[in-house]
Amino acid sequence: MEKHCTDSRVKGVSTGTTILAAIFDGGVVIGSDSRASMGGEYVSSKTINKVIQVHDRIFCCMAGSLADAQAVIKSAKFHLSFHSVQMESPPQVIAAASVLKDLCYKNKDELQAGFLTAGWDKKNGPQVYVVSLGGMLISQQVTIGGSGSTYIYGYVDAKYKPNMTKEECLQFATNALALAMGRDNVSGGVAHLVVITEKGVEHVVVPGDKLPKFHDE
Amino acid sequence: MAVEYDGGVVIGADSRTTTGAYIANRVTDKLTRIHDKIYCCRSGSAADTQAIAEIVAYQLGFHSIELDEPPLVETAANLFRASCYRYREELTAGILVAGWDKRKGGQVYSVPIGGMLVRQPVSVGGSGSTYIYGFMDANYKPGMNKEQCMEITAAALSLAMERDGSSGGVVRLASISEEGVERRVILGNQLPKFSTH
Known about the structure:
The complex is a heterodimer of chains A (217) and B (197). Chain A is of the alpha+beta class and 217 residues long. Chain A has one domain (19-37, 46-207): Glutamine Phosphoribosylpyrophosphate, subunit 1, domain 1 (4-Layer Sandwich), CATH 3.60.20.10. Chain A has four helices and 13 strands. In chain A, strands 1, 4, 5, 6, 7, 8, 9 and 10 form an eight-stranded antiparallel sheet that branches. In chain A, helix 1 (66-87) packs across helix 2 (93-106). The relative contact order of chain A is 0.22. In chain B, strand 5 (31-35) and strand 6 form a beta hairpin. By secondary structure, chain B is α+β, with helices and mostly antiparallel strands. In chain B, the strands form three sheets. Chain B has a five-stranded antiparallel sheet with strand order 10-1-2-11-12, covered by helices on one side. A five-stranded antiparallel sheet of chain B has the order 5-6-7-8-9, covered by helices on one side. Chain B has one domain: 4-Layer Sandwich (Glutamine Phosphoribosylpyrophosphate, subunit 1, domain 1), CATH 3.60.20.
């Protein structure tokens, strides 16, 4: 019997967290909860935003040590805008993911941060990338992360279908986050969701009392 | 896992026992008979749970003879709890006790590691259980009938087996009601499939 606790053993302020990204027909939804905790006993912030914009149509979600994640993202934003100026065009989503991956891989001994990168670019349309703790980079249709994600693997495997509509995907993401927040004590607060399509970016915030309620045992 | 319905209970388990990375038994039966209409689902150390189940089966059999009637599920659950709590430092055992009796019908009692006892309409346990809490919260509704309980149990176990390295093999199901015990096995290629992405 093993428990998956790697995120919640991080020292200092950690984003014991639930993050999620999913591709739908024409775009991508990326979302997270909003709780930051210290050691699983004290909620140091109820309304932290873990969905960070790194470029016009590229967003990142962070998990693990909040300090490490913020530092990496700050550096990644700089590298990405420099790259974008050099290329004279908006960066590809994989470029953003690769920059994060490089930082995580080269500093793997010191860092404890993982990322989901989701966005839209002209070449490949909507994409989702995962950079895990040691610096592996893979592309997936739907992905979840953080300590709360263990509780919703079954739900996501069962419920996600490729080529959903935007509304279906938003409902799926809201439900998944609500289920995880209901079971994981270091995830909670509000659900931050961002919808990215060719047309632009839309922020959706679902406050705690408006989250779907599920039957509790 | 175990699910109550009106008139009985449905219990289910995977069939994998591991020693480290080696699968010692890929067709394990983790649904153990304690009495005619009382079964338990074992998780944790196979040795610990087998030993406890044997002891409880003996104690319950003796108690049933003294009473001259079938034992209550709550009694079986309390016997498990007594052993699991008294020897909590030495044991690693998470047990679900489920069955049918005349007084309260179908019941599910959960005795997790540490030796707590709680009755729940639905309970999941074991290493793979963390992955299906969300699925169960979303899909279980009170008032389901036996077939629906079977389906949701098979689906939940398949999902957990797909994600947890320590779970796998076949799905063993059993339903316990006034009529008796009905056992089923669902083989790997017959398990419900979910869209792979």
